[in-house]
Amino acid sequence: MKKLFALLLAGLVSLGATELKVGTAANYPPFEFIDDQNKIAGFDIDLMDALSKKVGFKYQFVNMNFDGLIVALKTGKINVIASAMSATDERRKSIDFTDAYYSTENIYLRKKGNEAIKDKESLSGKKVGVQLGTVQEMAAKEIKGVNIVPSEETVTLVLGLKANKIDAVIFDSSIGYGYLKKNPDLEEFHKESDGSEGFSIAFDKDKNLDLIEKINAALKELKQDGTYDKLLEKYDLK
Fold first, then answer.
1. Tell me, what DSSP letter sits at residue 236?
2. Among 29, 82, 170, 201, which is least packed by CB within 10 angstroms?
């Protein structure tokens, strides 16, 4: 009987009987950002809210730097990561992912008319901006001779590119195309796979397998009932 009670209690905890602390880096619009009311908003925030209603858990968002999210998850400071995190084989060594909910590619941006940069190979010896801890930073490290300029904020990288302080930036396509729409003096010059399965919600390794299964089922329901498409339209991600 004691063993059965312990199993039931574990199930309640995994389903969010206690409030889940959800880590996010709210500097990545439209997925997560600080809105006009100084609140965390964005696609991931709305998606987590919709999932919580389907699955039945409570949550609280914790804003932090992107490159600190996995460490915070592993040390128990947060229980979940919902921050446009790409599910890669390397990350799977230490954390578990739900099914992917959004797919992107790496896109490379330059100042319009900068003919000194024509392709990926021409970035050797150039300054390339990336957000810390992202798969785009990993991609930059694979370019021979590149000088990586890391930043916590993507907007800082865009400003640096526009001011000719850096030569190119690598973003995921979801936010990169957003910056292109607002900055006609920038242009794309290369695009490639980001080597991941797509953006996914992350949990510590082997600790929330039942909850991940329920979230995967809920994701399918949200896509079937139209909720997911409405969120894509709301944040101009279609």
1. T
2. 29
Backbone angles phi, psi at 235, to 5 degrees: -105, 15
Per-residue pLDDT of the chain (238 residues; tens, 9 = 90+): 444 334 433 444 444 446 899 999 999 999 999 999 999 999 999 999 999 999 999 999 999 999 999 999 999 999 999 999 999 999 999 999 999 999 999 999 999 999 899 999 999 999 999 999 999 999 999 999 999 999 999 999 999 999 999 999 999 998 999 999 999 999 999 999 998 999 999 999 999 999 999 999 999 999 999 999 999 999 988 7
Rounded alpha-carbon distances, angstroms, from residue 170 to 2, 45, 126, 148, 195: 54, 24, 13, 10, 14
> How crowded is residue 221: how many other Cβ atoms within 10 Å of its Cβ?
14
- Residues linked to residue 23 through DSSP beta bridges, in sequence order: 62, 81
The model carries a pTM of: 0.83
Side-chain-side CA neighbours of 222 within 13 Å: the count stands at 24
* Interatomic CA distance for residues 235 and 238, integer angstroms: 8
The type of residue at 32 is E
Q: How far apart are CA 185 and CA 228, in angstroms?
A: 33
Burial of 19 per CB tally in 10 Å (0-12, 13-18, 19+): exposed
Residue with tokens 């993507």: 154
Distances (CA, A) of 82 to 69, 78, 215: 10, 11, 12
**What size, in residues, is the chain?**
238
| CA pair distance 85, 100, nearest whole angstrom | 10
Contact present, 123 and 235 (Cβ < 8 Å): no
- Per DSSP, 39 falls in state -
